[in-house]
Structure formats: C-alpha cells, structure tokens
C-alpha cells in the first residue's frame, strides 16, 4: 500500500501529463487553424488576427520609402551646400590672388599698393560683407581689417597656394580664403630674424551661399512632394496588379458550385502561388475520394439497414396471418408498425445526410419543375386516398425550369407531401402548387398547403430542426421531414417559409402553407 504522499504525487503527475496533452492538442489545433502564423504566435489563447498580405507588402515597401525621404533631404542639403560653395570659393580665390599681387617689398618691408578701383572691386558686393587683411613679415597690419581671425601657424599654406576655412567675424559666419607671399630676401624655411611670409586673407559672409543652397534644395525637394504621393499611388496600383491573380483565384473558387471538385488550372497560376494551387488541388482530390467513400457508405448503409427491416416487417405480417392470441396479434402489429417507422426513419436519415453533404458530387442540371411535381403527387395518391383526403395539383400553363438535382428535389417534395398527409386529419384537403412570382419573374414557388391544425408562429423556427416535434400532435412522424426540406432548399440556393392558410370550407382550421422559393432559369430566347 502506498503512502498518501506518493498517491498525491502520482495524481499530480497524472494531472500534469493531462495538462501537457491538452496544451499540445491546443497548439496543434492552432497550427492547423492558422498555418501562416509564426511559431511564437501559435499560443492557444492568442487573439491576434492575421494581417492582410496586401497591407504587409505595402508596409514593407512604404516604410523604407518614408524613412529614406528625410535622409535624402539631409543629404541633398549637404550636397547643395557643397555645390553652392564651389563658384563662390573660386571667386574668393581670385580675390586672394589679386590682393597678393598688390603686395610690393619696400626696403625689405611689405607694402600694399591697392588702387582705388581694386579696393572698390573687393568691396563691391550688395549681399555679403567682404573683408580682407594683409599682415607683414613680422605680423604687422599692412592693410585691411585688423580684427579678422588668424589661421593657426601650422595651417599657413605655401606661397602661391590658396586654402579655405570657415570662421566667425563680429558674430557672423564667414568663409575665408588665405595664402602667403614670399618677399625677396627671406630665407627659405624659418627666417633667423623671426620673419615669415606675408599673410593675405579675403573673407565674406555666407548669405549668397545660403540663398543658393536654399534655391537648390527647393528645386530638388519641392518636386519630391509631388513625386512621393505619385510613387505611393504607383506602388498601390502595382501591388493591386501584382495581387490580381490571387483575387482571380479567389473569384474562381467562390464562383464554383458546391459539387465542383475539379482541379484548378495550375499551369496558368503565377510561380509564387503555383505550390498553393497544387496543394489545393491535392486537397480537392483527397476530398473527392472521401466524398466517394461517404457516398458508398451511405448506399451500403441504406441497403444493409433497409433489407433486415423489410424482412422483419414481412415476417411480422406473415405471423399476423396465423391463428394466435389477441396479445400476440397486438405485439405483431406493433412490430410491423415499428419496423415500418424504423425503415422510414432510416430513409429520412440517409436523405438528410445526402442533403447536408453539399459536396458529394451531386449533378446539377436543368429540371422541369412542373413535371417533377406532377410525378411526386402521383406517388402519394394512394396514401391520400387511404385517409380519404383530396390531394390536388396546380401548375402554370407553361414549363418552369430550375437548376438543381432531380433526386434531391424529388426527395424534398415527397417529404412536404408526406408531412401534409401525416398531420392533416382524415377527410382533409391538400394542394400541391407550382407558381411563378409576378413581382419577381426570376423566382418560382413550390407550395404545399393543407387543412391541418397549422403550425404556431412561435414554433416555425424550430420545426425545421432535426427530431423536433410539436407536443400534443398526433402522427408517427420522426421530426426530420422539414429539416430535410430546409437542407435541400439551402443546397439549391432557395428559401423555406411556413405560413397559415385558411380554407373557407374549414374556417376553424388554420391550415399550413409551406413554400420553397427557388431561382428560376430561362432559355436564352425566353429571358424576360
């Protein structure tokens, strides 16, 4: 005998294993339900909805585009500044060369001989402020602006070479071009007397450069405000065109009849979705095989179940002819009635299975409804006469055709007539009618009306459920007749309605009017 602790341990282990099995089954179901989800999104409790493929591609295309756009603006600004600096730097370089040529040595000292015309030329700028400075060999001011900033000693260029730098003068950003000039008598390299080449600087503010850079940026950026929305529209249109085969495939599948299990044309599908089409065709093939197995099973079941029930009824009827006691006679009668009821129940169950299985390969064709209804009424004449009922039939004076399955439509009409006979008192009246709709010529109505007790309005939504019967009603029905009618009507794209119908001959009986509305088809020449 194990201890309580060990028993609790085994129970905990059993619960843990059961929980693990349940989680594994839930994960498998989630994977089958959403095969496109990443592994980390396959939690059973996940409420994430799958994203649109169109939206996913659009996001991955437009997000980089919108991210790169500000980067392109920044790069364009830098390029525009570089472009704007080019011509103005060359003009500033020319000014520096002109100013350097005006330096003359006088007794070993630099002297700036600047004509008034040259000075005016250097200062002639109606946008920017222009500055210049010349420093002698000992750093003395030879001419120009004294407060101009100086370059580092290590940054002084070789004589005859102009270099540029950015600096600040009087709180304004400036661009400086500077060079040096060798005077005769200066030793190469460092002069022993501490003298150095003459420094020449020319500078200007950056207003013209900024204006030109802004003009360049405007010329480049403004068209992008038009190009970017146009690019988004073209991407949208391109994606729509690229996904058109998927929409065509969807329309093709949706337009198929429920019984059409033929494979899709994989050869015309784009290579990206060809594997999907091939897998779908494989699924259709396996589904068709399963449907064939089911049809074969239904046929075998019908044969195997009907035969012994018919034999049981026959044996009961043969036994009833023998000289037996009253109690045995009643038992045999009950066996015969029960076997008949069971045979009818099996027939209705098989009919309901065929009706609910809308993809069993049923062949739909044009059916002449008036002829079909006339033949169905003829099949039930003897059953109506046995209950002293008036079974009538009305039809329009012209043929009426629908698209459907002959066997299933005949089964539907037989169930309607059978229900009317079973639930209408003896001596009643039943009318089967085929009529067209004056308000909608595309509809045809198949009606069965009787003088029975009727179906209360509160019960009409439930009588089409399987095995539902109204309490207190006489009759040996199984509660499947109207369920079969509804399934067959739905399979044919029709609608089932139940109404009252009051006969003048029986004012106390509401009666029942059951109507099945189907889509009418016309020959091309007769289409109204």
Automatic annotation (TrEMBL):
Residues 300-522 form the Histidine kinase domain. It comes from the Bacteria. One of its GO terms (molecular function) is phosphorelay sensor kinase activity. PANTHER family: SENSOR HISTIDINE KINASE YKOH, SENSOR PROTEIN QSEC. It catalyses: ATP + protein L-histidine = ADP + protein N-phospho-L-histidine. GO terms for cellular component: plasma membrane. It comes from Caballeronia ptereochthonis. Residues 1-48 are annotated as: Disordered. Its EC number is 2.7.13.3. It is found in: Membrane. The chain crosses the membrane at residues 60-80, 216-239. Residues 240-292 form the HAMP domain. Keywords: Kinase, Membrane, Phosphoprotein, Transferase, Transmembrane, Transmembrane helix, Two-component regulatory system. This is histidine kinase. Pfam families: 2CSK_N (PF08521), HATPase_c (PF02518), HisKA (PF00512). Its main location: membrane.
């Amino acid at each position: 005998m194990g201890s309580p602790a060990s028993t609790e341990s085994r129970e905990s282990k059993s619960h843990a294993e059961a929980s693990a099995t349940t989680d594994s089954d839930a994960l498998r179901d989630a994977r089958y339900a959403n095969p496109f989800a990443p592994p980390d999104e396959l939690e059973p409790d996940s409420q994430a909805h799958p994203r649109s493929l169109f939206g996913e591609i659009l996001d991955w295309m437009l997000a980089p585009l919108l991210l790169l756009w500000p980067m392109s603006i920044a790069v364009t600004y830098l390029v525009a500044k570089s472009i704007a600096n080019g011509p103005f730097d060359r003009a500033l370089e020319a000014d520096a060369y002109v100013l350097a040529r005006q330096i003359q040595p006088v007794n070993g000292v630099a002297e700036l001989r600047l004509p008034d015309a040259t000075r005016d030329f250097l200062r002639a700028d109606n946008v920017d402020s222009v500055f210049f400075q010349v420093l002698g060999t000992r750093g003395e001011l030879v001419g120009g602006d004294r407060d101009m900033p100086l370059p580092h000693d290590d940054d002084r260029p070789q004589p005859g070479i102009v270099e540029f730098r950015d600096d600040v003068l009087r709180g304004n950003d400036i661009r400086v071009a500077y060079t040096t000039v060798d005077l005769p008598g200066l030793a190469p390299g460092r002069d022993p007397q501490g003298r150095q080449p003459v420094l020449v600087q020319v500078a200007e503010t950056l207003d013209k450069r900024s204006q030109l850079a802004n003009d360049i940026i405007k010329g480049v950026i403004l068209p992008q405000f038009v190009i970017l929305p146009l690019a988004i529209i073209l991407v949208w249109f391109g994606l729509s065109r690229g996904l058109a085969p998927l929409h065509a495939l969807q329309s093709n599948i949706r337009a198929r009849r429920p019984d059409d299990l033929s494979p899709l044309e994989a050869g015309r599908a784009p290579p990206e979705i060809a594997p999907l089409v091939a897998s779908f065709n494989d699924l259709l093939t396996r589904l068709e095989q399963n449907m064939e197995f089911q049809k074969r099973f239904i046929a075998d079941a019908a044969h195997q179940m009907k035969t012994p029930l018919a034999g049981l009824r026959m044996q009961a009827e043969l036994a009833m002819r023998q000289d037996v006691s009253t109690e045995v006679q009643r038992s045999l009668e009950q066996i015969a009635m029960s076997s008949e009821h069971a045979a009818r129940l099996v027939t209705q169950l098989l009919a309901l299975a065929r009706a609910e299985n809308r993809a069993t390969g049923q062949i739909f064709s044009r059916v002449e409804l008036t002829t079909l209804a006339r033949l169905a009424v003829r099949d039930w004449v003897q059953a109506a006469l046995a209950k002293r009922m008036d079974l009538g039939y009305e039809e329009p004076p012209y043929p009426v055709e629908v698209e459907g399955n002959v066997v299933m439509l005949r089964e539907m009409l037989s169930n309607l007539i059978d229900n009317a006979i079973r639930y209408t008192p003896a001596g009643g009246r039943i009318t089967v009618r085929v009529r067209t709709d004056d308000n909608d010529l595309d509809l045809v109505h198949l009606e069965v009306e009787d003088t029975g007790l009727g179906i209360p309005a509160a019960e009409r939504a439930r009588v089409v459920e399987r095995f539902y019967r109204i309490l207190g009603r006489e009759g040996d029905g199984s509660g499947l007749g109207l369920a079969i009618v509804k399934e067959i009507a739905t399979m044919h794209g029709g609608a089932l309605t139940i109404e009252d119908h009051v006969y003048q001959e029986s004012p106390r009986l509401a009666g029942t009017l059951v109507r099945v509305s189907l889509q009418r088809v016309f020959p091309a020449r007769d289409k109204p």
